Automatic annotation (TrEMBL):
<keyword id="KW-0560">Oxidoreductase</keyword>
<keyword id="KW-0274">FAD</keyword>
<dbReference type="InterPro" id="IPR016169">
    <property type="entry name" value="FAD-bd_PCMH_sub2"/>
</dbReference>
<dbReference type="InterPro" id="IPR006093">
    <property type="entry name" value="Oxy_OxRdtase_FAD_BS"/>
</dbReference>
<comment type="similarity">
    <text>Belongs to the oxygen-dependent FAD-linked oxidoreductase family.</text>
</comment>
<feature type="domain" description="FAD-binding PCMH-type">
    <location>
        <begin position="33"/>
        <end position="204"/>
    </location>
</feature>
<dbReference type="GO" id="GO:0071949">
    <property type="term" value="F:FAD binding"/>
</dbReference>
<dbReference type="InterPro" id="IPR036318">
    <property type="entry name" value="FAD-bd_PCMH-like_sf"/>
</dbReference>
<dbReference type="InterPro" id="IPR016166">
    <property type="entry name" value="FAD-bd_PCMH"/>
</dbReference>
<dbReference type="Pfam" id="PF01565">
    <property type="entry name" value="FAD_binding_4"/>
</dbReference>
<dbReference type="GO" id="GO:0016491">
    <property type="term" value="F:oxidoreductase activity"/>
</dbReference>
<keyword id="KW-0285">Flavoprotein</keyword>
<dbReference type="InterPro" id="IPR016167">
    <property type="entry name" value="FAD-bd_PCMH_sub1"/>
</dbReference>
<protein>
    <submittedName>
        <fullName>FAD-dependent oxidoreductase</fullName>
    </submittedName>
</protein>
<dbReference type="InterPro" id="IPR006094">
    <property type="entry name" value="Oxid_FAD_bind_N"/>
</dbReference>
<dbReference type="InterPro" id="IPR050416">
    <property type="entry name" value="FAD-linked_Oxidoreductase"/>
</dbReference>
Length: 441
């Protein structure tokens, strides 16, 4: 039922989308979740975010926050509640070129951030998919194409402006509220609505982009070769590996990004990757502007098009048994997608207690997904060989948040501090009362 709108604040005029509004069909769902919210609110400024939040709270409607709508849990929409959609808050501004300080609003997509910063010779390490929103990624982590050189996106956040559950606007930085800054950097979704971030960018223009396909065996040796190379490789090299069955053969698709354009450096970083596996099947090498890796062609409205179930785990150093377990998962009959991402490097320069992302000694992230009609039970079966092997998890690739996921994402003292701070900034749990969209695993 559509809530009573007669007392809507004037600043939200034209920005309240009900189910009978023609815009509703394009706004009700996300990339990963389909739902029927009662309303979608489209604020265009911080004061309008405050008005939107008050509007929902005054009517006792559950609230969910959406930036880019690519959260894998699909929780940026929900049946019967209010979605505060920040897509109109999408400005990107260089505040100080010398200090490389950039202000980005939460509703911007990373493709647009990349394009806006390219003329300045700057980039913010973010993700591999330009369609993701700034808000969800920069409150959770941010494992991008330059992660081993740049660190996580949250590692470079210097300040954030946040609308709290009671409608106050707070500034989180080292001087004003270091606790809030700590929580925003990794556990921001439970703090409030982060409207904008100040982030230190890095100097980067062109990068080397290499795609390699190799045939591999089931024994896990290829994954060990990859992990061994990454353990000693320059930080300028960041890679991902996807394992696919191709008939009776197994193929590893390796994507490598090398910061800079020095050909000697590129060759030294990438050549050992060509020796992985039993046979080189394909190789593509090019130099490209960094922002071109965050392509825009897939900027489309969310319609639940990627409604899978996803989980992940971090590994400290890959053992033979880890590699065997990953290969066992990858070859399961559920046909999962298994992806490995190199982390480490600059990520591990940050002390474990400095942000709400405490995983600072691991080198590899393993991500497993299954897609409809397969759901959570099938994902559990796929993950079974890896359960118990991993050391922590990343919230960005977990589609089923809950106590078990929380304990892996925020282990030990980090979890206690996250809970304490969420309760301090949002005592009524406004931002934790989430109903999943339909179609989740
Ligand atoms: C196809 C795909 C590729 C991905 N690739 C990467 C990758 O390369 N690297 C990586 O690190 N992650 C990656 N992810 C995971 C991604 O980081 C998270 O899903 C992230 O939450 C997406 O941000 P969003 O703004 O689009 O999400 P949304 O769906 O808009 O939001 C997700 C959740 O974040 C919270 N949130 C959103 N905006 C705000 C805000 N402004 N203030 C406070 N809380 C907020 C809310 O709780 C919301 O439910 C990928 C996900 C997908 C689906």
């Amino acid at each position: 039922m559509t809530p009573h709108l007669s007392a809507a604040p004037p600043e939200l005029e034209g920005k309240i989308v009900t189910p009978v509004d023609p815009r509703y069909l394009l706004l009700r769902s996300t990339h990963t979740g389909v739902a029927e919210p009662a309303l979608v609110l489209l604020p265009e400024s911080t004061t309008e975010v405050v008005a939107a939040l008050r509007f929902a709270r005054d009517r006792d409607l559950p609230v969910t926050v959406r930036s880019g709508g690519h959260g894998v849990s699909g929780h940026a929409t929900h049946d019967g509640g209010v979605v505060i959609d920040l897509s109109a808050l999408n400005r990107v501004e260089v505040l100080d070129r010398r200090k490389r300080l950039v202000r980005v609003q939460a509703g911007a997509r990373w493709a647009a951030v990349g394009q806006s910063l390219a003329p300045y010779g700057l980039a913010i390490g973010s993700d591999d998919h330009g369609d993701l929103g700034v808000g969800g990624l920069a409150t959770g982590g941010g494992i991008g194409w330059l992660v081993r050189d740049y660190g996580l996106t949250i590692d470079r956040i210097r300040a954030a402006d946040v609308v709290l559950a009671d409608g106050t606007i707070a500034r989180a930085d080292a001087e004003h509220d270091p606790d809030m800054l700590w929580a925003v950097r990794g556990a921001g979704a439970g703090v409030g609505i982060v409207v904008e971030f100040e982030i230190e960018a890095m100097e980067v223009c062109d990068v080397g982009y290499v795609q390699i396909a190799v045939e591999i065996k089931r024994d896990g040796r290829a994954l060990r070769q990859w992990a061994d190379h990454m353990a000693s490789a320059t930080r300028g090299l960041t890679t991902t590996v996807s394992v696919q069955s191709c008939g009776s053969a197994l193929v590893a698709s390796i994507t490598a990004v090398v910061a800079g354009t020095d050909r000697h450096h590129l060759r030294a970083a990438v050549e050992p990757l060509l020796l992985i596996g039993t046979r080189l099947l394909d190789l593509n090498v090019r130099l490209t502007p960094y922002h071109a890796l965050l392509a825009t062609p897939h900027l489309y409205p969310g319609s639940g098009q990627q409604a899978g179930a996803t989980t992940n785990g971090l590994l400290r150093a890959m053992t033979d048994d880890d590699a065997t377990a990953i290969m066992a998962a990858a070859t399961m009959p559920q046909q999962p997608s298994i992806q490995l991402r190199s982390v480490g490097g600059a990520v591990n320069d940050v002390p474990a207690g400095a942000t709400a992302y405490p995983h600072r000694h691991q080198d590899t992230l393993v991500i497993a997904s299954v897609f409809p009609p397969r759901r959570g039970a099938e994902l559990d079966a796929v993950w079974q060989p890896l359960a118990g092997r991993s050391d922590g998890a990343y919230g960005g690739f977990e589609s089923r948040p809950g106590p078990d996921a929380f304990a892996r994402i925020y282990p030990g003292a980090t979890g206690q501090r996250v809970t304490r701070l969420w309760n301090r900034y949002d005592p009524d749990g406004v931002f934790r009362r989430k109903e999943p969209g339909r179609g989740r695993g």
